[in-house]
Amino acid sequence: MYKKRFQNNVATGRFTLPVVILICAAFWTATGFLFSGPYPDMPGTYPLWLSNGIRSMLPHWISQLISFIFYGFIGYLLIELNNTYAIIRTRATVQTSLYFILISICPFIHQIFSGSLVSFTMLISLFFLFKSYQSRRSSGNLFHAFAFIGISSLFLPQVLWLTPVWLIGAIMFHALTPRSLCASLVGIIFPYWIVFAFAFITDDHQLFYQPFIDMTTFTPISYFSYLSWEVIATLIYMFVLFLAAFVHRIINGHKNNIRTSAFLDFLILVSFSLLVYIVLQPSMAVKLLPLLIMFNSVLIGHIFAMTNSKASNIFFISSLAVLVLLFTFNLWMPF
Question: Does the residue 1 lie in any domain?
Fold first, then answer.
């Protein structure tokens, strides 16, 4: 007889998401009063983002409010992603609940900045990439998928390093042909055509070539120079979640259909690539963290919604307990 455990009741419950939203609102209110950490976009950010100007125009609380709404919209798109491509074989909201919780326990990313904007544009890119799966008209989908990578790079040039990962994804989805490859290259170049025209008209050529300089500029691998203890603790927790998703995929991968397996494999590949890049370039950790949280939320949501074992229930309860401790640690450390 099938017995629902605490994990399943929470992961598939209809009241989970509303409760999580209320909890997250309380978290954000608390961090708004208690946390006043440095702005995530440091001076020297790519000119299109103009972090210093944004920072001077927006008070701290307004930036937090805009960020809260922005992350909420991303959470809604994660529900649409699952409903469209059935990554979790139910109309689940657990991935969004996890996303909200994981974002909320990181007060150092509670302001609108390049990392949150990149999460949004890369999620749209993911929609088009998934849509290209075994499609006879994959060229159009891949054009849009790579165009949004190009748009993302206007906020954070380093995401261009994910271009080969997206190409591997297109191969995994049987969507890459000589024609669609050309469409992909045109797509990723398209935003820079517009930037080049603007830079030419305004006679500000740095606007065009600066992202390529930023992308190829590597900082020393010095973790304690770029990462605070709360960021390190959060990254360790994200790595544990990724490892759990990876092990679950190896053990239970045969239970998914071919399309779902391909989507999950790609999400694991992207998460792994982000972790590797953070290890090699710790200065980018905070900016890439929202993106890592977004992909990990879908992977872990799949585990919590689709498993019903004693081990997974213990892992679920343990994860929640560590989340509470991590939020307390992240809020306490700046003081």
Answer: no
Distance CA 165, CA 184 (A): 13
Structure-block tokens of residue 270: 């992207």
Location of structure tokens 């992961």: 11
25 falls within a domain: yes
Q: What does each C-alpha distance from 171 to 154, 165, 181, 298 come to in angstroms?
A: 26, 10, 10, 21
DSSP assignment, residue 44? Answer: T
Contact criterion met (CB below 8 Å) for 245 and 87: no
Q: Which pair of structure tokens corresponds to residue 299?
A: 């992977």
Distance CA 115, CA 330 (A): 19
279 phi and psi, to 5 degrees? Answer: -65, -40
State both tokens at 192: 């820079």
- Answer whether residue 173 is part of any domain: yes
CA distance 118 to 39: 16
Interatomic CA distance for residues 230 and 252, integer angstroms:
33
State which residues form the domain around 162. 6-332
pLDDT by residue for the chain (335 residues), tens only, comes to 356 677 777 777 778 888 899 988 888 888 777 766 666 776 556 666 554 455 556 677 788 888 889 899 999 999 999 989 988 877 678 899 999 999 999 888 888 888 888 999 999 999 999 999 998 889 999 999 999 999 999 889 999 999 999 999 999 999 999 999 999 999 999 999 998 888 888 887 878 888 888 888 888 888 888 888 999 999 999 999 999 999 989 888 777 889 999 999 999 999 999 999 999 999 899 999 999 999 999 999 888 888 888 888 888 889 989 998 998 888 887 65
Q: What angle do CA 64, 99, 153 make, to 5 degrees?
A: 70
Work out how many domains the chain is built from and give that number: 1
Give residue 48's Cα distance to chain centre.
Answer: 21
DSSP string covering 259-301: HHHHHHHHHHHHHHHHHHHHHH-GGGHHHHHHHHHHHHHHHHH
**Residue 228 domain-assigned?**
yes
Residues 6 or more apart whose CB falls under 8 angstroms from that of 256 comprise 264
